[in-house]
Amino acid sequence: MLVALAAAFAVGPAPVDGAAFRPPHGRAFHGVSGTAGRYRDFETFRRRVRAHPAVMEDFFPWGTALTRALPLWRRTQTRGMLSLTTRLGSGELIRPGQIANGKGDRYILRLNRSIAASGQIVYIRLFPEMNGYWNPYCAFNSDGSARGNGHSTKSFRRAWRRFTIVVRGGPVARIDRRLHAMGLPPLRAKGVGKRLPRPKVAMVWNPQTIPTPAISANNPGRYWPGRRYVDWVGADIYSKFASPGVRAALSRFYYSYRHVPFEIGEYSPWDSDPSGRFVSWLFQWAAQHGRAELLVYYRSVYANGPYDINHYGSARRALRRILNERRWIEYPSGTQGRAG
Q1: Which regions of the chain does DSSP assign to beta strands (E)?
Q2: Alpha-carbon distance 219 to 253, whole Å?
Q3: Is the pTM of the predicted complex or chain greater than 0.90?
Q4: DSSP labels, 155-204
Q5: pLDDT tens digit sequence for 281-324
Q6: Which domains are delineated in the chain?
Q7: Kind of pairing between the strands at 232-238 and 200-205
């Protein structure tokens, strides 16, 4: 299958605004996906791996308020990660082209204000696996045909940039100037005032390293919005599909985005992990690739599903050993636990 060439992924200096909120040098965060907002499920995972996750990732459709997530992230003493999709069931809530043209501004402003008011650090994993056809914001169908109608890679990039500019906040006049310079309309919401708050948010760009469908027009780089609008780059990998080719693609993808913090937005010993080999390999890979500073265990949005750690005893034992190492911070700075 195809992977994007390194030249297509060239990145420049750090973004002018925005911050990555990385762990201290030489350290890393481990996280876990939330399960429908249940605190007890978080505690169950924590006990099973005998380590406190530093990040909790929640998967929400477009328009979902963080009224439950923000208090839960605070209660669990984690940094939140919002994994945001436009899919609801089999339908699509809003198209990338509509977001680019301002139709989604009200929701972006709501996120901006609620996160800022909380004072918490939140990683926004916007439209993950965007080059996978099963996501409505992908530009292509499974047979490689273009979806069109506001679903092009150009529309995706423009939507990403608008979302990032607005959610980061600042003077509204400056925001409007930046949008105008990209050929986008100004903020489309009443009563925005002259200045938006500046929340502690970091934008996470997380495509598939190998596109599906595997055509050059669907390569990750076609969805790259530019370094100014990305704080972390990442990818997903599961034991079920971790063939030598997939592992090699992960490394190539990592090296295509030099100088950018790297995360694994989803991993799991799904299907099988004899002797914990997949988990051990992945964490060894992260140790050898120093910018890989955040790994998130995916257990679906429901506990005890096929991804859950309780089905994989060897992987659980491997995680217990690994997460006991000094590199892995349990309580990030800004939480109520031990500072890290």
Answers
A1: 28-33, 55-61, 79-85, 87-88, 91-92, 121-126, 170-171, 195-196, 200-205, 232-238, 262-268, 292-297, 328-329
A2: 11
A3: yes
A4: HHHHHHHHHHHHHH-EEHHHHHHHHHHTT------TT--SEE---EEEEE
A5: 999 999 999 999 999 999 987 778 899 999 999 999 999 999 99
A6: 6-329 (3.20.20.80)
A7: parallel
